[in-house]
Amino acid sequence: MKIKAKIIIFGKNGQIGSNLVKLLKEESNFDIKAYASNDVDFSNLTQLSSFLENLSFYPDFIINAAAYTAVDKAEEEQELADLINHQAVKILADYSKKNNVKLIHYSTDYVFDGLGNEPFTEDNTQNLYPINIYGKTKLLAEKAIINSKAKYIILRISWIYDQEGKNFMNIIAKLAQEREVLTVISDQIGSPTSASFVASSTIKIIKQLLEYQDEFPAGIYHLASNKYMSWYSFAIDIINTLKNDKVNLKVKKIIPIKTCEYKTLAQRPLNSRLNCQKIFNFFKL
Ligand SMILES: NC(=O)c1ccc[n+]([C@@H]2O[C@H](COP(=O)([O-])OP(=O)(O)OC[C@H]3O[C@@H](n4cnc5c(N)ncnc54)[C@H](OP(=O)(O)O)[C@@H]3O)[C@@H](O)[C@H]2O)c1
Description:
The protein is an alpha/beta fold and 285 residues long. The chain is 37% helix and 18% strand. Residues 11, 13-17, 36-37, 41-43, 65-69, 84, 106, 108, 138, 157-160, 165 line the site of NADP nicotinamide-adenine-dinucleotide phosphate.
């Protein structure tokens, strides 16, 4: 790849953002600028607009890995979640359209209602009814991006884990060292997906877009690992890995429970399976 692309990353300290920054720094063909919430606060739309207007670095791509990701808290902070996940994204999309920037944005399996057992495809609108505020704000962002007519790629990802950050894998690892008994939900099914896989796939997509001669393949693409499992099965895998790594664990018993036995502020979809054929047909990942 000869073209040198300029990339702006928002959400540089997050699970996906930090992996993007790490991997892109190893590449010689990219100039990157990455920002955290204390550089530009997405809940302050005026600040975000003026930040974009005053950019001295004209990007070819914007990757938006910033989001309000506290799914339960979003039920109590609806306005804030909407500002960060939806309205700020509309500003990014309008900026991208106006300035011919390609926008890469992450969305979620939580845009679906979680009904049925089949993996959801990108063209499924029948189940496109989020059941929590987080999912609703993420769906509104998708619509704002599409309506902006910017050149966009929306990657719907799911169940992200990473060595760093607050995620299921790290929570289970901590609890397994502290408690003898763990109860884990066994009737929500999805695809645990590593943040580094999402970041490296994003970079491969950007490289292919730079070489791409045809019309920009704007669209929604599902991107997740190819294994469907419950949180319970994932917890067992995590604990087995820790045992293999000789980590000192306290846990003796893992009890599967149903979603209805575990009250949370936000409802969560039972079926989070994503059909990822489209992205693998289109891009080499
Ligand atoms: N985690 C998952 O399981 C999952 C699943 C599906 C989709 N996704 C989507 O994937 C994307 C990345 O997720 P992630 O897991 O990497 O998220 P994450 O680790 O929670 O990181 C999100 C980042 O967003 C930034 N942010 C939050 N509020 C902000 C604000 N007001 N202004 C600017 N930045 C703000 C934070 O920046 P600071 O740290 O600088 O405050 C944080 O680093 C998000 O769009 C998320 O919706 C995640």
